Amino acid sequence: MKIEVVFVLIAAIIFSTMEVGLKIVGQTMGPFQVTFYRFLIGGLFLLPFALRSLKQKDIGMSKKDFLYYIFLGTLNTVVTMGIFQISLQSVKASTAAVLLCINPMFTILLSHFMTDDKLNKRKVIALALSLIGILFILNLNNMTHELKGMLLVIIAAFFFALYSVAGVKQVKKYGGIAHTSISFLLGAAVLFVLLILFRQPLMEGITLTIIPALLYLGIVVAGIGYLAYFSAMERSSASLASITFFIKPAIAPFIAVITLGEEIAFNTIIGIIFILVGSFISLQLDQYFVPLINKKKENYKND
C-alpha cells in the first residue's frame, strides 16, 4: 500500500471523531473560542517538527508567502472552522460529519480550474457515487428542522475545499508539516485578535473535564489529522487527499452512535455503501489497477 493512501486512511479515521469532540467541548465554550484553542494547540504541537522540516529543506519564507499564509490561516481557522463550529449548535454530529464531506466535490472542481489536477471519467464516476451516498445519508425530506445548520456546514465545506486547493503550491514547497503548523498558528493569531476586539471570552468554560477533549481536538484532530491530510496532498494531489472525506461518512456515524447515542437509519447504511464504492474506485483504480494495466501493456509490447 502506498504511503499517501495510508495518510488518507489515517486522516479519515481521525477526522471521523472530530464532530463528537466538538459537540462535547462546545457545550461549555463558545464556537470561536473552541476553534482558537484547538488550532493553537495543534499548531504548537506541530511547530518543532515544522522547524526541523524547514531546516532540512534549507528554505526560508518570503514576505509574500508569509502574507499568503495569513490568508490561508484565516480562511481555514476563522472562516471555515468558525462557521462549522457554529453549525454544530443546531445539527447532529453525524449529520454535520457527513455533510462536511461534500467538500471533495468542491475540491475536485476547484482543482480543475486552479491547478493541473484535471477532471477525468474516473473522478466523475467516483464523485457521482459518493454524492448519491451523501444524499441517501442526509435524507433531506426528514431533516428540514436542521436546514439552517446544514446550510452553514455546506458553506464551511466550500471554504475548506478552497483552503485545500489554494494551499497546494505551499504544501509542495514547504511540506505538509510546515504548511499545517504555519497556517494553524497564523490563523489562531488572527482569531485571537478578533476575540479581543469583539470582547469574546477566552478562558470561560474551560474546566478540568473539558481539557482532555480540547487537547485531543488540538493535538490529534487538528495536529495529526491535518498533518496526515496534507502529507497525502504533498505526495499526490488535492483530489486524492480529498478522498479522506469520501471515507469519513462510513465511519463517523458509528462513532456518533457509540459516544452520543445517535441512531443510524437504513438510508444511512445505503449511503455508506455508495460512498465506500466511490472511495474504492478513486483509490484503487488510480493507485493500483491503472499502473498494473500499464505495466501489462508494456510487457506485451516488449514480448
What can you tell me about this protein's structure?
The chain has 303 residues and is mainly alpha-helical. The chain has one domain (3-302). It is 79% helix and 0% strand. It has 15 helices and no strands. The chain has helices at 3-15, 18-25, 31-57, 63-87, 93-99, 103-114, 121-138, 147-166, 168-174, 176-197, 211-235, 238-241, 244-247, 252-260, 266-302. The chain starts with a helix and ends with a helix. The relative contact order is 0.21. Mean pLDDT is 86; it is low at 286-297.
Radius of gyration: 19 Å
Shape: globular
Total count of domains: 1
Report the total helices.
15
Task: Report the strand count.
Answer: 0
Output the structural class: mainly alpha
What is the end-to-end distance? 29 Å
Mean pLDDT, nearest integer? 86
Give keywords.
303 residues, mainly alpha
Summarize the structure.
The chain has 303 residues and is an all-alpha fold.
